[in-house]
Amino acid sequence: MSGTPSPAGSRVPSTARPPPSPLRSASSSGPIAASSSSNVAQLGSAPAATSKRPPIASSTPPPGGKARARDLLRKHYGLGVGAPPPRTGNPADPMDLNSPAFDAKSYYEQLITTSSLPALLKRENEFITEIRQLDSERQSLVYNHHHELIAASDTIAAMKTRAESLDGDLDLLRAAFSEISRLCAEVSFENNAASDSGETKNSSDVVPAT
């Protein structure tokens, strides 16, 4: 009966599919599992990589910077500065940077002939640091007293305007003083004339004794 064809209208029973091969399922799921495990490993290792931060450089102020800033603040608010440091060295020494008799050419020649290369580089860095510090102090002083400079310029402009408006009053005052001087001269002249006439009258009234 298996060889006879089925009658019309009858259904042919469907044959069941064979189960998938374990080799095929393992090979198909291998890359997915590997990729998922690699993703998990990356996610697990990401916080550890991002948690490492570069060390923050410590900003330690240079020696003497706090005292200098404190002196600038005291000077700005009119409280006076601290005691000046004792000056060392000869005031007439041409090799002293703070001396009025400092000779830059002699200092330079002595420095390049007696110092090594590391010493020259160190001295250059010291000069650069001092120059920048002095420049920053100059800028801070100008900035702190900027409003005072503006107020002084406004005061000078107001005084100039008021002085120009007082020119007419000064002319009137000068004319009044001239008139007062003229009247004083006339009064003094009349007083002198009256006193002279009185003296002559008194002398004429006197009778000579016989």
From TrEMBL:
Principal localization reads Golgi
Question: Keywords in UniProt for this one?
Answer: Golgi apparatus, Lipid transport, Protein transport, Transport
What InterPro entries does this protein map onto? Answer: Vps51
Cellular localization per UniProt: Golgi apparatus, trans-Golgi network
Q: Where does the record place the region Disordered? A: 1-70
* Low complexity: bias regions: 23-38
Keyword Protein transport annotated? yes
Subunit comment = Component of the Golgi-associated retrograde protein (GARP) complex.
Q: Which family does it belong to?
A: Belongs to the VPS51 family.
From the Swiss-Prot or TrEMBL record, give the protein name.
Answer: Vacuolar protein sorting-associated protein 51 homolog
**Species of provenance:** Laccaria bicolor (strain S238N-H82 / ATCC MYA-4686) (Bicoloured deceiver)
